[in-house]
Every structure is written in C-alpha cells, then in structure tokens.
Amino acid sequence: MSMTYAVPDLENQAARRSIATWYTELRRVQRSEAAARATRAAGATLLLAAVAVGLFLTVARPASEILWLQASGLLALAGVLITPVAAARRTYLYHRRVFLARKLYDKGLRVDRSGRLVTDEAHPRVVLNDAAAAGHPASP
Amino acid sequence: MTFARRSLPVAGLVLGLATLLALAALPMDSAAQMVAAVVLLGGLWIAVSPTDDEHHHTARLIFIVIGVLISLRYLFWRGSYTLYAADWISLISVYTLFIAELYSFAIHALGTFVNVRPLDRPDLSMRAEPADVPRPSVDVMVPSYNEEPELLEITLRAARQMRYEGKVTVCLLDDGGTDQKVNDPDPAKAAAALERRHELMALAERLGCRYITRARNEHAKAGNLNHALTVTDSDLVVILDADHVPTLDFLDRTVPWLARHPDVFLVQTPHFMINPDPIDRNLLQSFSRMPAENDMFYMTIQRGLDFWSASFFCGSAAVIRRKHLEEVGGLAGESITEDAEAALEMHSRGYRSVYLDEPMVAGLAPESFTGFVVQRMRWAQGMTQILLLKRPFMRPGLTWYQRVGYMSSVLFWLFPFARIIFLTAPLAYLIFGLEVYNASVMEILAYTVPHVIATYMVSTALFGRTRWPLISEVYEIMQCLFSLLAVLKVFARPRAPSFVVTPKGETLDDTFISPLSRPFYVLFWLAMLGFAGGVWRMTEYPLSRELTLVVLLWNIFNFITILAALGALLERRQRRAAPRMPVREQGELLLPDSGRMPVDITDLSAGGVRVRLPGDWTAPAVGATATLSAPAPALGRRVELPLVVRSVSGRAVGAAFDLSTERAADDAVAYVFGDRARWQYFQDRRLRKMPVSASLKLFFTLMGAPVRQHVRLGFAGALRATRARLAIVFATKDVAS
Hints:
Structural class of chain B: alpha/beta
Order of helices and strands of chain A: HHEEE
Largest sheet of chain A: 3 strands, antiparallel
Helix content of chain A: 55-70%
Number of strands of chain A: 3
Oligomer: heterodimer
Structural class of chain A: mainly alpha
Largest sheet of chain B: 7 strands, mixed
Distance between the termini of chain B: 100 Å
Shape of chain B: globular
Strand order of the largest sheet of chain A: 1-2-3
Radius of gyration of chain A: 23 Å
Shape of chain A: rod-shaped
Distance between the termini of chain A: 20 Å
Number of strands of chain B: 18
Strand order of the largest sheet of chain B: 3-2-1-4-8-6-9
C-alpha cells in the first residue's frame, strides 16, 4: 500500500534504524548549531570590542600605551579567526538540519519543541525520544 | 517601601531614557558617525542572533535599546541639520517628510516597547478546577445582520456543542429581522425581513437556541448586543461573530481565568481565519505557508499588550464578565470600534484582561478587496475616534504602560498619512525638483542607511515569525489611500462615522480587476514618471547625481510595492463559499461494496472532505454513497460521517457530507471545526522567519502574472467599451436614418 505521508512502519527493522539514525543525528546537529551560533556571536563580540577599542585609542587617545593597542589587535585577531569559522560551521549545520528534517518530514515525522520525534499531525504520537534513540523505540 | 518599589522602576526608566537621549544627541562628524553606526549595527546583530527563541528577554532588551539609539541619532541629525529649503514649498515638503518619519519612529518605538516581552499564559481547564469552584452560567451571543442561515447554522451548532459543566444558553441576535425591518416602507424589503425572521426563528428552535430580535436597528452590532444583555442574565457573555465557529473546548479553556480571578473582565482569543484574505489569495497565494496578515496582531502584539495588561476586546471570540460590562453601560459607545472602547473603559476602572494565544475560533476573512477595505476603514475610523474622543494618553484610571499600549494600538491607524508621504516624497524630488531631503551621500550612508537597517533588524527580530519582510508594505499601501480619506473624515467630524458590516462568505464568479484599482494605476504612472524625471535629472544636474541615484532607489522600492498592489487587485475567481482547510490526517472510507478503505484526509470544509486513496484500491464512482470514519480526538471518539462522492481525480476523491440527520450535522461541525489542536498545528506550520532576499524573490516570482493579467483584462475591458460605444453610435444613426 502506498501512502503519501503514513506513519512509518516501526515493525520494519531497516526503516526504524534509518529513522533512529536521522533523528539522533538531527538532535546532535541541533545542539551543535546552537553551540556554533553562540561561538559566532562570541567571536563577533571579540572582534567588535577590539575594533571599538582600537578606533577609540587611535582617534581619541593617540598617546596611549601601545600595549592596549596590541591587546586590542590580539582580540581582533581572535575574533577574525573564530567568527568566520563558526559562521561557516553554523551554515553547514543549518543546511544539514534542514536536510535531515526534510527526510523525517517525508516519512510523516517531525521533532517537537521538547526534542522528541513525533508524528507530523495535529495530535502527534511520540515515536522516539532522546533516550529511546539509543535503541529503544517508544511505543507509537 | 511600596513607594520605593513603585518609584524605582520609573526612576530607572527615566534615567535610561535620559542617557539614551544624551547619547543620541552626541555631536559627531559623518566619519565618526559611520564608525559608531557600524559598531552599533554589529552589536545589534550580535544581540539579535540568539533571538529565534523569543524567551531571550535580556537579548531582546539589548537589541531594542541599540535599535532605538541608532534611530534616535538619525532623528537628531535630521532635526538639527537637514530641515532647510530654498523656498516655502520645499520647506513644507521637508517638514512633511520629517513629520512622517517622526510618526514612523514613534510607532516603531511604541511597538518595540509593547512587544518587549510577549506573554505566554499557561493552559487552564475548567475540568481540572476543584468541584467546589462555582461554574458560572454563560450566554453565547451570535449577533447577525445579513448573514446566510447556512453560515449561522454552523456557528450555532458548534456553540451548542461546546463542552462545559455549567449552564450555557446560545442566543441568536437577529438584526436583520427587527420590527423596523419587518415594517420597512418598501414591501419587498419588509417581506424579505419577515421571511428571514421566520427562517432564523425556525433555525434557532431546531437547534435549541434562543432567538432574540429587537424593535429598532439602533447602534448596529453594539446596540444588538446591548439589547440582548437586557433580556438575558448569565454571569458571563461569549460574543461570536456570525462566521466565528468555536472549538469544543472554547469555554473549558477560557472560563477558568474568569472563575479564578474576579477582577478579570475579558478573556480574548485569536481570530483564526480559515480562508486567505484577498491580498493573500490574489497575490501571495501562500495561505498554507506564510503567516496570515492578522497573525502578527494575534500571535505577537496582543501577547505583548497582555504583558502590560492592555490586551483588548476584538469584537468576537471572547468571554466577558457581564457585571463589568454592565458597569460601563454595555458595548455602545462613542466609536464604531465599540469593542476596543469598552475594553478601554473597563481597563480604566482597574479591571484586568487576559489574552489566550490559542486558536479556538475559526472565522472567515473578507473574500473581496472591497470587503477588506470596508473592514479596514471601519477599524481605522473607530480607532481614530477612540484617539480623539477617549484620549487614551490621558485617560484617568489607566496605568502609564496601559496608556502606552493603547496609544500604540490607536496611533498605528494613522499610518496612511505617513505611507502616502513616503510614496510621494521621492516623486516630489524626481518630478518637481523639490529638495525634500537635504543630505550628502556620505551623510545618508552614515545616518539614514543604519537607521533603515536597524529598524528592519529590530522589526524582524520582534515580528519576523508572524510577518515576513515587505508584506506590511503591501498591506499598508493597499489600505492607505482609502483609510486616509476615512480617517480625515473622522478628524473633520469625529462622531459622524457609522458601523458598516464586513461582507463575509462572498463568492466571485469571474476573475476581474477590482473597481478600487484606479488610484493604484495613478500611482503606477506617477512612479514611472518619477523614473523618467530621475533619468533627466541625472543628465541635466550632474552635481546632484549621487542624491538622484539614492532617490531613484527609493522610487524603485515604492514601484515594487505598487506593482505588488496591482497584483493583489486582480480579484481571482472564488466560487467556493465554504473554504477548504488543508489537513494531514488519516481515516477510513466505508464503501457498501468494497469494505473499509484506509485514506489520507487532505482537506476539510463545512460542506465536505477530500481524501487520497491508497494505490491498490479502486476509486468509488461519482454519486456513490460512503461513510467517512475518522478519529475525532476533540470529541473523544470516532465519527462516522455519511458522504456522497462528488468528484474523482486520480487518487483524490472529493465528497460532500450528507447532513440530512441532526446527528450527522452535529458530528460534521464538531469534527471539522471542533478541534483546537488542528488549528494550532496549521498555524505553527506557517510560523517561520523569512530573509528579505527570499521575500523579494517571492514578490518578483508572483508579480509577473498579475501584471500581464492587468494588461490583458485592461485591454479586453477597453475593447468591450469601445465596441459598446460604436454599437450605440451605429444604432443611433440607424434610428436617425
């Protein structure tokens, strides 16, 4: 029987395994994306602070200690190194998350706000949760 | 101690504002301002980054402050250095534009204040309340004027089936069959009114509802409700528009707030629309994918107002405590938005309102652009009346934040003034050479561009999930020309406007250009003229080329929104009075010969259902009878709905409900409209942010076809008119000869 968005047959071992794999990866990607986002913000904060301090020193206090300028330069360097890497990682993870979510969506599933894998319906049923993803599917 | 507790936040706020103003007024040259703006925008970007989740309250506060600071610096610069002109006409233009900018900033700032922390109310259920908590009695009032009985029947059936342990009386308040209407001097109108009265009386009797009418049609809907208040006596009053169908748990989830808190006068819920509004239907065609136009108000702004205890009554989908309502003299007031006015009165007496962001009432948006404009003009006029007659900014009894909340809601409706000025200002420069904006390109880059970017970033962060970029511009342009005249009339005669019923459930037999499109054609040609003027100006005045280029970009933006407006003015054919809602559910089709066939239910409407069959089953023939068996979680059981197959297309089968028995009709309404989770699911799927680039792409993709249609229909119309004129001329000649 071909159904457009039927709930996956959880008795089918292969289907269950691939869904569990996608779900586990999706949860990991979600966590990593949040970390990458925070890292990007931290890097950008460093860069911005360094630029602000540097500009202030050069424009308003040109006679300041060179040490301050060097410190802001170091901060800027850290920011320049961290920000693009974190931004690129976040972009990659975003696309990966969308890709995995799409795969689950095609199977009539989605991850809800609590992080559980549920059927994509108005009255969703829990298919897997984080603990169960280790290999113990919840009863649908 | 109490004084200190109350004063400290106010003192902090005043100190903060003073610091903000001092920073905004700090003098800098353009280069320094550019550096400051870049740093501030960077800070804004960092603060905005983690706010996909709206519970990052500190980050929200930070980006709001940074955004307001950037805009304030811009306004200080504008006010200090750019307001001059060589002649009086230019000077008037310069100040007009500046006032429009001040207004826009005020609305933006008020909006950010209101939405600093949208409130999420917890779920309460009357069934979970202890048994000793009294269950207040409820009158459900459904006012009607000219709606079809079929439409009313659905609402009444749903209202009758709401689950509640206390006493519920459903009342149909018929203003189309009043004594005044029945005794109309025109015999045809009188007969129609009498027939309507009898028909609705029979409907009410059949459904076990109470039919109420009155002697005269005074004060429109508000008068109708006030009359009903005098002949009913429940503790609580539910008000539902004729097309607003409640879910089964509406009372169960709203009444606890009133039962628990005696000072709560109102529990308002969103108006969830099950059909696209005309702009969405004609242009965007994104009903299932894009947040609806009113989602921004109901899913963000009302929650923001609720945090400040200033969420207000929206005329329907709400429960009101009778005692409080009677204390302020009922709903009739001085404005035609009696709902908001009554809420203002009750707020100013110290009572509280609650807003529950759960779609528990499904309604209909106006189908035609004319209906849409009628509705918006009423809102604009009513809110302006409240501004002029009720003066929320100095209303005794309101807290200062409630005043800010009301002013935010009321002042918004003056947007037509600003929108028209922003549309015409670049034309004033490009066509007439009026120097409305005196700034160098460097200054524009240092002040104007950061202000525009900051405003956009803050708006997106606050409202991005419920309103996509550029959508507001289109909706405002579509309304501004008509609302401007309506609002001007209120300023001239504040008590003159009268209530006009919004047409609902209309059908449109053909695709046609809206009769209200003429002003938009004028705007279109003016924008084109602006481009021509810009090119001429570039060649004739090489010294001001950079400024001309900037103004041309501004004109391009306006032109895009005008084109989008033209697309939305092409009224698409709409033959279905009962809109279909897409769903993703399973059920079974019980066929007399084939047994139980598992099906996917793909859409539902008041009249029927569309299902998708599995591949290995034979589709039933058109005209065949069947039964849809589907789980109805809201009812706590399966429903068995008799159907008649109306269409078969591949694996898709369309069927109409056979509503010949009361049980089937009740179950159909409860199944289709009774489930709150279904509406919530539908809404949640639409909520997401859209980058401006994607929004622009959407616009460009959609605009081509409507523009071509305009040209085609315009030519066809002109051709028809010419033919008709020629026919008249020839006929006249024949008669003469």
